[in-house]
């Protein structure tokens, strides 16, 4: 089963969908298998179960048990390479734990 990556913004519609499709494309190009899912912030907790990483568009004070990736970097392009590397590392670490 592919690793799951959750992308969340306030409504789970426009911004998270945009970031999710961009991340999906980048992962495919890098030949990293993962399932990227856009959700709204209110339901994020139940989606994070068994997720490899969480890409957040909004600033959250809440600490999470999984790697948190800055989603703004994928919107602006600033710092995108570092955040993408963190995401790939998180997916690889998750996959290693599942074996």
Q: What report would you give on this structure?
A:
44% of the residues lie in helices and 21% in strands. The protein contains four helices and four strands, in the order βαβαββαα. The chain has helices at residues 14-29, 44-47, 72-76, 80-98, and strands at residues 3-9, 34-40, 53-56, 68-70. The protein has a four-stranded parallel beta sheet with strand order 2-1-3-4. Helix 1 links the parallel strand 1 and strand 2 (34-40). The N and C termini lie close together (11 Å). The mean pLDDT is 92.
Task: Write out key terms for the chains shown.
99 residues, alpha/beta, 4-stranded parallel beta sheet, 4 helices, 44% helix
- Label the structural class: alpha/beta
Main beta sheet, described?
4 strands, parallel
Compute the number of strand runs. Answer: 4
Strand content: 15-25%
Overall residue-averaged pLDDT value: 92
Estimate percent helicity.
Answer: 40-55%
Looking across the biggest beta sheet, what order are the strands in? 2-1-3-4
Please tell me what the overall shape is. Answer: globular
| Rg for CA atoms | 12 Å
| H-E order | EHEHEEHH
Question: Summary?
Answer:
By secondary structure, the protein is an alpha/beta fold. Helix content is 44%, strand content 21%.
SSE arrangement:
Blueprint: E1 3-9, H1 14-29, E2 34-40, H2 44-47, E3 53-56, E4 68-70, H3 72-76, H4 80-98
Parallel strand pairs: 1-2, 1-3, 3-4
